[in-house]
User: What shape does this take?
Amino acid sequence: MSSNINPNNIDGYFPIAGQDNDSQGFRDNFTNIKNNLNFAKNEISDLQNKAILKSPLSGTGTVNNNMAGAILSNVNLNSDSHVFLDHGTIGDPGITINYDLDYNLATVHSMTTAGSLNFNLLNLPLGKFSSMRLLINVTDSAHTIHFDGISNQNGFDRVEGYQTAGALITFSSANTFPQVFMFEISSPDGGATINVVDLFRGRNKTDGNLTVNGKLTVTNGLIDSNLLELTIASNVNVIANVNYHTWILDTISSATIANAWITLPAVAEHGREIIISTLAPITSANITTANLTLGNVKWSNTGIFSNGNVSAKFVYSTTSSAWLKV
Assistant: This one.
């Protein structure tokens, strides 16, 4: 802004020494001085109310640079931080507690659960993209979290443990508790729509060129690690199913047996894998599908396990309608 103070309307050469001076000149100077002082007072007060300060002005309390939504552009930030609010331990083991996360109080909220929590998001600004972070120490796998009053939810399907029914985020009992999780919650419309990102764990869903056909089981970082060990005898029929990825067959004392029948499912998802591993030698292994059609298992032979300690992978192809030994 331009200042209204005008030092040029004050006559610094009045009164003139050695002559009679008109009293109007005194009145004009005093009036202009008073007006300029009023201009200065108002402009200084305006600056005090609107300027960004790095320390309190004399006689005032702490600095609160509330920008009131004003645009601050072309800024180079260094060592910036966010207001952190620790809510302590909250919740009740028997019921789900409603709890407020207020954007005006902090943008990082921390707590420890004593039960399931239903969060209300308060004071997220309309017409602006805003975000908060939730740092939550979950003490029991039975505790769940939920965001109340949200009509549109983005990213929840990518959060591990999200349950569509009830829009809950659950925590697997396979984890060790207590365990700390962090979620970023953002909104472009005051909280009517929220976006949720799990910052500590990987996505529950991957977008892009990764295609998974059939069931993908990940246990302790191993894909399809589920297996079944069986002790068999000659002429037994092993009926394999897709509940196990790896079937390990052995005999008593790993002795050689003459015959074994291994039945794969009649059909499966495209790309489904089943591994048959035999520790004991099987002189003649007949591998078929549940409909007993030998053509539905390709490139296998009866002597495949004759040496023992051999594994064979079978992959189902819907193109060939058959299990392919690969």
Observations:
- The chain is about 10% helix and 35% strand.
- Residues 23-50 form the longest helix (28 residues).
- Residues 1-67 form one domain.
- The chain has a mean pLDDT of 88.
